Amino acid sequence: MKVDLNRINALAKKKKEEGLTPAETKEQLKLRKAYLGEIRGQVLGTIDGLKILDKKGNDVTPDKLKHANSQKKHAGNILSNKIPRV
Predict the structure, then answer these.
(1) pLDDT value of residue 19
(2) Biggest distance spanned by C-alpha atoms of the chain
């Protein structure tokens, strides 16, 4: 879902100036929740792709993160194998 930041900002401005109707308040909460979900997804995606190296260049990524990344790659491969090629 692509969050409409212009709408979020318009509702914030209206709330300051004159207040929101109950329907607009619900819409604002829904949009904010969707926006925060997108941001969290981006941050988690970035963290999941990290590889931690020490000063000598050795990979010291925690095993828990390595395992999670390999599971995601494996799941992605399984899904891509099920998609019919054209």
Answers:
(1) 96
(2) 59
